[in-house]
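The instructor's notes for this session suggest beginning with a concrete chain rather than abstract definitions. Hand out the sequence below and ask the class to guess, before any prediction is shown, which regions might be ordered.
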Amino acid sequence: MAEIMVFHSVYGLRPAVRAAADRLSAAGHTVRVPDLFEGNTFDRIADGLAYRDELGSDVLTERAQRACAELPRAAVFLGFSLGASLGVRLAKRCAFSALVLLHDGTCVPEAARLPAQIHVAEPDEFVEEPDLVAWSGYGAQVFRYPGCSHLYTDDATAEHREADTAAARETWSRITAFLAERDRVAQGA
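After discussion, reveal the predicted structure:
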């Protein structure tokens, strides 16, 4: 089973992120979920973005890097939106073995060399189409979920839509299969 680092979204470490970690733990994975916002959570994207900007990119990057300092080389990274973009930027320094990006598709060439799965709403105002095309070109699995809200895996957001529930179920099914494949590869099967 994999060791998985999970970074939360701009909403902070909310119940949906903890539920994701619990789901992964129940499947036998070892999961680490650092709180990059140190207890602050938000109900609106605008408030979370304002807090992110108040902290600054350097502080968030340093917190994320510190959280990854003692990961084994074979760790899988899973990030939600803001957390996904932070993890991608740290992929080379943290030596992740694979990436799962939820609600973000930021593509950095160093990270794109890793096996990756990307899950985004379609359309999504926070995701750049050229990044998704780049990921596809590197061989990543890119999944789009039409009619969903940006953070569709978090059913407690104000933006949550009816289509989000089915998309979230499908997303977790695909992630489970991806992690099982990573385990087979790691075991040489």
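Then share the key points. Residues 162-186 form the longest helix (25 residues). The chain is about 45% helix and 15% strand.
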